[in-house]
Specification:
Blueprint lengths: L9 H25 L8 H8 L26 H21 L8 H7 L2 H8 L11 E4 L15 E5 L2 E12 L6 E7 L9 E7 L5 E6 L10 E12 L14 H39 L6 H32 L5 H26 L9 H14 L4 H12 L4 H6 L39
Parallel strand pairs: 1-4
Antiparallel strand pairs: 2-3, 3-7, 4-5, 6-7
Helix pairs in contact: 1-3, 3-6, 3-7, 4-6, 6-7, 6-8, 6-9, 7-8, 8-9, 8-10
Bound molecules: flavin-adenine dinucleotide.
Flavin-adenine dinucleotide binds next to β1, β3, α9 and α10.
């Protein structure tokens, strides 16, 4: 057992600490005040690229090629990503999600893409002069948790596919050079009908409908996308047709989540830690002299949150360790995600309570963290969905049994579909040559 952060991650973690303090947090506050993300041509994005930071998994890009993962050796990709995700989210989770890179689109391309797709769609992030983004477009107005319900259609037409449908809440969706777009070739086929396409920005029929206004995470762009007769070549099918044998499309989406949920968990720890530190800082400053009794009254609750933050970090690290060792991690990733996202909210909520009247004032960081952190519980499967995933694995509750006992859609809902992601995390990535502080967080 080794509870230390790998010493090789330290230099980049320290650089991220510097960047977080000097840029991520102040720019996140600026975005929050102006109510929207920094424009894609903001100088910060070029600056951060020149430092070698990337948002999302890109794999090791040697000579513009993503090497195959066939030597069976453990990786450190996921462990490094959770450490950096925690650090980045500590400073500002919205800014961390907005860093140039493939975002959540990186994991499915790396896991399922053909060599040519990896080289093109991940290789473009090797260019450290032009900020670029990728996106992952799964959610639809009628299909969030229950991804089996997606209705965006992909119709075969000669050697092309024609996509029609709507996607919502897509992180970096308006600025992305490309998006992994999930569609169905036939809703009657359920999950077996799922296909993912790499769709370039600017493809006729692909438009951005709007950028959402959110209660928090203003620095992170969240867009609604429309596909209206959007024609893409056969080669845009992620991984080629053979990747979709059985429920291959659905499984690959779930594998991507096994890879990214530990990162979201680490972000919950990072944001919770930020709320805790800020609460303590303000409380120490304000509760002096005659009001010093106030700190002693809340010390027990602060200690409890601190202890939970340690526990949450261990859950995230374990899920990442399993991914790096190519072992199934769906249960651990789900546990970490459910626990830590909720924990971030608990820490921020405690901060508001402890600081009393000042806690809710917008010039205190805790108030912003409270608004920002709620989304962590929603993205990449809510806590309820994580529990469905875990129950399926631990108790053997399955979709079919649920149906036969008259259970509602709870049994089919997924965003998680653990039943199908039997391989756990198949992290096929080499250690990343670029740094992934935001990991592949999307959703
Ligand atoms: C900031 C942000 C960024 C996002 N980025 C992306 C992105 O990049 N790409 C993308 O594809 N999506 C993205 N999303 C969408 C996100 O994945 C969905 O919002 C999420 O999956 C939940 O879906 P929903 O909002 O439709 O809620 P619903 O699925 O309608 O759920 C509503 C409520 O019902 C509960 N519920 C649903 N099913 C069950 C069940 N079986 N058992 C128990 N409870 C259940 C849920 O837990 C939830 O509390 C983003 C969302 C946010 C907020």
């Amino acid at each position: 057992m080794d509870f230390q952060i790998d010493p090789s991650f330290e230099p980049i973690r320290q650089m991220l600490g510097w960047l977080g303090k000097s840029k991520l947090r102040p720019l996140g506050i600026e975005a929050d005040r102006q109510g929207g993300p920094l424009p894609p041509d903001h100088p910060f994005f070029k600056e951060v690229l020149s430092m070698g930071m990337t948002g999302g998994f890109v794999g090791k890009l040697k000579d513009n090629k993503v090497p195959r993962d066939d030597d069976g050796r453990p990786r450190r990709t996921s462990r490094r990503a959770v450490v950096l995700a925690e650090e980045a989210a500590y400073w500002d989770r919205g800014m961390a999600t907005s860093l140039p890179g493939p975002s959540l689109g990186g994991a499915p391309v790396m896991l399922t893409g053909t060599d040519a797709q990896k080289e093109h769609y991940l290789g473009m992030f090797k260019d450290k002069t032009t900020p670029r983004w990728g996106a992952f477009a799964m959610s639809e107005p009628g299909a969030g948790s229950d991804v089996a319900r997606i209705r965006t259609r992909a119709k075969r037409d000669g050697d092309s596919y024609v996509l029609s449908g709507e996607k919502c809440f897509i992180s970096n969706g308006a600025r992305a050079s490309w998006a992994v777009v999930w569609a169905t070739i036939d809703p009657a086929l359920g999950r077996s009908g799922h296909r993912a396409f790499l769709v370039d920005q600017g493809t006729p029929g692909f438009t951005v409908a709007c950028i959402e206004k959110k209660m928090g995470l203003a620095a992170s762009e969240t867009a609604s996308l429309v596909f209206d007769g959007c024609r893409v070549p056969e080669s845009a099918l992620l991984g080629g047709e053979e990747a979709y044998a059985g429920k291959g499309g659905f499984k690959s989406a779930m594998k991507a989540f096994d890879m990214t949920r530990p990162l979201v968990a680490a972000m919950g720890v990072g944001m919770g830690r930020a709320a805790y530190d800020e609460t303590l800082r303000v409380a120490r400053e304000r509760f002096t002299g005659p009001s010093s009794w106030r700190l002693s009254r809340v010390q027990d609750r602060l200690v409890r949150v601190r202890r939970k933050l340690e526990m949450g970090r261990m859950l995230a690290w374990k899920a990442a360790w399993l991914a790096d060792h190519k072992r199934p991690n769906a249960v651990e990733a789900g546990m970490a995600k459910a626990y830590c996202a909720q924990l971030g909210l608990e820490a921020a909520s405690l901060g508001l309570e402890v600081l009393g009247e000042s806690g809710g004032a917008s010039d205190y960081l805790v108030e912003k963290i409270f608004r920002d952190v709620k989304a962590l519980d929603i993205v990449e499967g809510t806590q309820q969905i994580q529990r469905v995933v875990i129950a399926r694995r631990l108790i053997g509750y399955t979709e079919d049994r649920g149906r036969s006992t008259g259970a509602s859609e709870a049994s089919t809902s997924n965003g998680s579909g653990a039943k199908d992601s039997s391989n756990g995390s198949a992290d096929t990535a080499e250690d990343s040559s670029t740094h992934t502080p935001a990991g592949a967080t999307h959703v």
